[in-house]
Each structure stands twice: as structure tokens, then as C-alpha cells.
Design a protein that fits this description.
3-stranded antiparallel beta sheet, 3 strands, flat
């Protein structure tokens, strides 16, 4: 998937994660019928995200 690709879905969860290695952000995207189509873990200084 390239940087210009966006997934069709809804972000149902976005949370900050703290651990020994540092911090991260987690996101989950689902379809209208609640099927998970994406799970994303990124650093706090991320750029554009697909969802």
C-alpha cells in the first residue's frame, strides 16, 4: 500500500501506548458491518495515516 492509499472504514479506537521502549499510538478500523479491516501502530510523531 502506498502513502496515498486510504482504507474505507471507521476509526473505532485510538489509544496512546506507553512501554519501556517508548510510546506509540494504536488504531483499529472497521467496516460498516463491524469487520476489522485494519490495525495500525505508529510512533507519536507519525505523518499522514491511512485511517
Amino acid at each position: 500500500m502506498d502513502d496515498d492509499t486510504y482504507l474505507d472504514g471507521t476509526v473505532v479506537g485510538a489509544t496512546a501506548i506507553q512501554c519501556k521502549a517508548g510510546s506509540a499510538e494504536g488504531r483499529v478500523a472497521v467496516t460498516k458491518d463491524l469487520k476489522v479491516i485494519g490495525i495500525l501502530m505508529v510512533t507519536p510523531k507519525h505523518g499522514r495515516l491511512p485511517f
